[in-house]
Structure formats: C-alpha cells, structure tokens
Predict the structure of GMP synthase [glutamine-hydrolyzing].
Amino acid sequence: DWTSESFVETTIQGLRTRLGEDKVVMALSGGVDSTVAATLVHRAIGTNLYCIFVDNGLLRKGEFEQVLHSYQDMGLNIKGVDAKAQFYTALAGLEEPEAKRKAIGKAFIEVFDHEAHLIQDVKWLGQGTIYPDVIESVSVKGPSATIKSHHNVGGLPDFMKLKVVEPLNTLFKDEVRAVGRAMGITNSILNRHPFPGPGLGIRILGDITPEKVAILQEVDAIFINGLKKHELYDEVWQAGAMLLPVQSVGVMGDERTYERVVALRAVTSVDGMTADWAHLPYTFLAEVSNEIINRVKGVNRVVYDISSKPPATIEWE
Ligand code: XMP
C-alpha cells in the first residue's frame, strides 16, 4: 500500500544510495513541488544539497524574505539571490507577453547558471517535476519547459548538462502535499495557491517597471490578506490582481483624476485546466475594493473578473 510515510522512507533511502557524497543544486520557488522535493533530498544528503532562491523582482510583496526565512527554519542549505535589477533590465521596454516570458526565462537561466558555477564539483540538478508534468505538457509554461525551450536556442547552459534527480516524478499534486505533510512542512507552503513562474511580470499588462511592480504588490497583498482574514483563501484555487494598461477618470475634491485600474481575479478549479470565477461575497469585494482605493496611491478603480476558463484563461497575459 502506498502511504506517504513509506514513500518518504524509501525515497530517502533511494536518494542516499543514488547520490552518495555527490552535490546537488536546486532552484526553489516557494511553491509546493520544489519545496517538497528539496526537503526529501535534504533529508537524504543534508548540506550537499545547495538550494538557490532567486528574487526576480516579480514576487508578491514580502514573499522573498518570508519564504527565505521558512527555508532557513527548515534547515535547508539555501542561498537567496537578489537579481531584481537584472530582471528589470532584461524586461525594460518589452510589452508583448511571450517576449516578457522569454526574457524572464532567459534571465533566470543566466542567474541560476552563474550560481551553479559557484558550487565546486556539483553533479546533479534537483527538480520538483511531478507526474502530470511528465505525462503531458500540463505545465507547458512551467519552469522546466522554460528551460527546455531554451535548449534549442544556442548552447545548453552548463547546469542543463548535470544529471537530473526528480524525486516527485511519480506523484500527483495531492500526493505531493501528503508527502510534505508527512515531513512536517508548514501549511503556509503546502496550501499555497499556484503562482506563475513569471510572477507579477504577466499580471502587469504591457511593459514592466519597478514602480508598477510596487503598486501591484500593494494591491495583491490587500486582496490576498483579505482572503486569508475572511477565511476565503482556502476556498479558492488561485487569486491575484492584474494591473491594466488603461487609466480611468475619477474625482478627488473638485478635480478630475486619471489613474490606474486594477482587476481582481479569483477562481475555483481542480487542476487549472478549467476554472470558474469564484463567487466571493459582495461585502468582501466591497471591503477589499475600498481598502485598495484608499491605500494604494495611483489606483482609482477596481474591477472583478467574472469570466470562466474556457474561454478566458486564468492569467490575463
Ligand atoms: P492560464 O492563464 O493558462 O493558466 O489559465 C493556467 C495556470 O498556469 C499558470 N501560468 C503559468 N505558470 N509560467 C508558469 O509557470 C507561465 O508562463 C504561466 N502562465 C500561466 C497560471 O497562473 C495558472 O495557474
């Protein structure tokens, strides 16, 4: 019988045999899969697992610091890399979604390759790939696919020449969570909503600037904290905010203002392939909208996305 406890035990033993005294490098994202995978490898080989967590400047407000601290608390050998400037430079002036995705993927590969080179004699690349990633291109847009799509462009980055270790590649998402729970990983990581690799980069429609990121981080934090406060966070599959490339008229005193519009999106879903917009209570939406408009300078209008997937996607880009 499959139990998460027995999976943990046999996987750790298998990893010890396979990896021996070798060093492994792994990029962590703060998400469930990479965290559970890293924890297994860490239990097997300890500090020979080198974890890298990159701040791409497109994370949620406070996320880099919070997640880095959780990883440190878990005892992982983790290095936080502040690469915000490098990502913003790579993105400057890009408006087209796929161009932005490519630039983000490429910057990530450069940063990670550089970091991997700093580790003497590293032999393996650890990855949080899960079974659905293996059987079909459910995660066509996932980080491993980003890496794969760069395969064909010029030479391979050196870390792609490493042997690959993927301890979760036979598991479904709920099994990954169960394994994480069996190892005592905190619910704040296990129950975290999915978050796209390119992060806020695809939730700022059009070109990205640090100022826009700062605005969207504030809006997103108000929305997400509100969901948590009202115990709605676990009721939705994913939630976030989009910064729209339009300004709308507003009034302040007897002046007309033209300020930004943000769209809130929350969906229910099983796997992200189809989704329904979440029927959040009006009182909740009203509270969040007021708080955003009162507290986030430069935003004067909030709209709620009531489209289902298909035909609308979860993200706007
Ligand atoms: P869509 O917008 O296609 O998204 O309905 C389905 C799921 O995939 C996530 N998503 C991405 N994840 N890189 C990622 O790692 C991407 O470029 C990307 N685009 C969308 C999205 O957040 C949702 O969970």
Remarks:
- Residues 101, 141-143, 194, 196-198, 202, 238, 272, 309, 313-315 surround xanthosine-5'-monophosphate (CB under 6 Å).
- The chain is about 40% helix and 20% strand.
